[in-house]
Amino acid sequence: MKTKILRKISGISNLKRNFSFFDSIKISNALKKEKENITLSDNSQIHLRKNTKDHETFDEVFIDNIYNLPLPIAPKTIIDAGANIGLASLFFKMKYPDSAIALIEIDSGNLEMIRKNLKGYTNITILNKGLYNKHSYFKIFDPFNATNSFVIKESTQDDYDIESITIDQIIDDHSWDTIDILKIDIEGAEKNLFESNYQHWLPKVNVLMIETHDRMVPKCSITVMKALDEYDFGLYTTTNGGTLVYYNSKFLQ
Asked: Which positions fall inside the Methyltransferase FkbM domain (predicted)?
């Protein structure tokens, strides 16, 4: 009993980094009961589905605070690749309200949740695309029967679920000069992203937050690190959730 109480107090304390004390208690109680809709004091809502990974993802973002890092600037431009149900972008938008965010997600069910969780927020672009290093077509697979590990495989124009989008295209479409935060969690597709056609956009990234998936696609990590080494990125930290955070050395000067 004592351990459970201490864990609850610790969870509320971590939630208070992002929410009011009242809302932190309310969220903590709702998570314990696995509620699907949590209405906060400002009437905004957090939506989490039962029997999915949504509650686990919420814990990572708002209790473990895996994206809550000290940055020397307030980010203005953010790409959230592998946005899942939008909780990372919700965190970024709460912490950096003036930021513009492009979310990329391949699953239609997750997209519906993104729209719910980011309702009322502005300067948000939601893209039902697969992030890749060129234009291509993909089939979507769910190898682990989960809601946070969908993968894409190249297909043909005659038989596909979604098309790709490149980071260069996102930059051009938004007329961005830099990407202040590039968050990537795309279940192994990061290997392709950092294999080629990164020379134009990668130097424009200030902070990279990436989870690599060597267990799914061999040599993801080394492919990413090789590309980053070309542009003098340095590893800043590794979060509790396994996300690697790199800073562009020019960004720190």
From this structure: 80-216
